[in-house]
Amino acid sequence: MNPLHRPFLAIAAGLGAALAPRAAAAPDVIWFDAPAARFTESCPLGNGRLGAMLFGGVSDERIVLNETGMWSGGPQDADRPDAAAALPEIRRLLLAGRNAEAEKLVNASFTCAGRGSGFGAGANVPYGCYQVLGNLGLHFLPPAGDAAVRNYRRELDLTEAVARVSYEQGGVRFTREAFVSAPDEAIVLRLTADRPGSLSFELRLDRPERATTAAVAAGTLRLAGQLNNGTDGRGVRFAALVRALTRGGTVRTDAERLEVRGADEVTLFVTAATDIHTFAGRRSDDPEKMAADDLARAAAKPYAVLRNAHIADYRHWFDRVSLRLGPPNPAQEARPMPARLRAFHAGAPDPGLPALFFDFGRYLLISSSRPGGLPANLQGLWAEEIQTPWNGDWHLNINVQMNYWPAEVCGLGDLAQPLFALVAALQAPGARTARDYYAAPGWVAHVITNPWGFTSPGESATWGSTTTGSAWLCAHLWDHYLYTGDRKFLAWAYPIMKGSAEFYSQMLIAEPTHGWLVTAPSNSPENSFYLPDGTVCHVCLGATADMQLLRYLFGACIDAAQTLGVDEAFRAELAAKRAKLAPTRIGPDGRVMEWLEDYREVDPHHRHTAHLWGLFPGDEISPTATPALAAAARRALEARGDAGTGWGLAFKLCLWARLGDGNRAFRLLSQQLTPAVADGPRTHWTGGTYPNLFDSGPPFQIDGNFGGTAGVAEMLLQSEPGEINLLPALPEAWPEGQVRGLRARGDFEVDETWQQGRLRAATIRSRGGNAARVRYGGQTSEVNVRPGEVVQLDFASGP
User: Fold this and answer.
1) In degrees, to the nearest 5, what angle opens at C-alpha 214 toward C-alphas 213 and 220?
2) How far apart are CA 278 and CA 788, in angstroms?
3) Residue 379, C-beta contacts closer than 8 angstroms, at least 6 positions apart
4) Which of 30, 56, 178, 522 could hold 35 in an S-S bridge, CB 3.0 to 4.6 Å?
């Protein structure tokens, strides 16, 4: 313990058992008093591969079905083989300050070959698009008597990952319960009624295109087809099966539908598979057989067994963290979600809503990203379209990374395995791109990618010449090691990081004014600036975001190589070049500069704030270590303003939390929770949060949900190697509360309890046995505990 600081360490005791998963808090329920009219009002369910969106209609139920292998397109070589020949001239023009001419040359010679992503509409080009699997439709025959519907309730229980619908009609109480089981690889829907023989409906299984439906057995339908690969039409093959098992009544099967009459209870099973072959492996060479095998296994088990196994599997992840924000407002918690969002926006105190939003983000990650599968995409795994917005792919200039921001801090780092697998898979195609465009070793990925490893620049210089997507991906590899201390993982990840660093080490050039090393060509993600003559431009030398990312990557590789005892000469090379990278600078207006030159931005309120990467998620800027840069970051954020897309608001929320401004962070969170409202004949939604808590850009992008969850965690706990910061950005709106199970770098697990706006107690569990400086406000103490030991910090009398 450092004698220069007032001590607040109280006791250290206890081993082992404290590391077990903790019980969940009171049930987190998102509920509605009416069926969903739109996708963004329905209830999402998923097991990391299969997804379902439950609408809860009374006379007609619609369930949107998803499977993560539903990708049109296919493998392609989108590199221009002669692109590297244009690079010297592009760089010469940039060094001469002739950015507009350089940008024209990039567009002509340094973008991807072919149509690329189809400018975000790639359903029928080789790049492809993530697509809906199909729709399960149930048309109910109402019971005799009064057709009015009473006591309707639709809910999603986050503590169990179960959706329910219940209502009364004709004197009968109807109930539906649905979940997507990971242990049994099936979507399960159970329908019951409190009067025997009351369940009668027709069931259909269909898809908007490229699929046929047929009966394959009594009570069983099959949906099968093949997606467009953008060349010969012979893309990914898929199959889905639905089976109805009844108690009482009858089931009639015809060519394209099932007809259930007079049943007491019905259980529906949906299974699906594709033959997509990606870095996650091939699901099946025979999708129909795989779906049939899954169906046979699931349908052979009692419903209670399926349900219990599903809940146990889900809670293995969800119960790792719990959050309570108070004091509670029962009147608000009793409102259906759309009304609750509106009341919160109008100013009604409701600290339980941010806690619910936090838990919903964890729920979505558990439901859309599981080891061995594909990473959560722009919509997690939920989509209702053939042409999903922006192809539903993985964008590498913030979006897929933001999807995984809450993973480590929320104890879900093992759910990032699909992201790590994607990064590893990009090495081979990224090496070809590095050679073809930069004549450089190592590997690179630019802005967009898909299941087949697209690493080429995008199809327009306005955004596609961002070169540091791979550097940002590698930051997640290093951060996973910082959180876990897993040397086996580091030994696996280091060669990937090294290959990325080798590329950047060789592609850097010296800019003429200071001799700093910079990337070229570069751009600050999707942003534009004015040249001195008023020309709008995007392509530049060494955007600030690039420099911050490369400083982090080079430093991570140096530390990783030293930890593993390898590559001494490479460490020295990176250290020398890292010292020459263009620094993060403060402009004449007191803001962090976004570009190497003091350009005037075209859109001062642009949605990206990439030049503040060094504040978050990086560690280059902090109020304690670099106060001048932190102040400049604050000025930059103030100039950007609080408006933005859903993910943009989430990014700003995290940035304000890193600055230690809890009230401003809460303002951004509140803005993110603004109800998205529909207007106009085409039902255009505004930004904010949809009625089902999906994030609205618009359109729906799940990164805002994950970024919001990470932002709440950053308000409550921050860490860097060797330091843990308790309640660094607690807002006045949360005067009391408790969080349990958050993780800190150094392989620590942290609980915190606070009252009247002050920390009262904290518990730190050392999972790996490390020392750390613990900070709260202006006070610090040193802790050094053995693996599995528990340290309790007592603040009851105030620090």
Assistant:
1) 110
2) 39
3) 130, 388, 389, 392, 700, 701, 702
4) 56
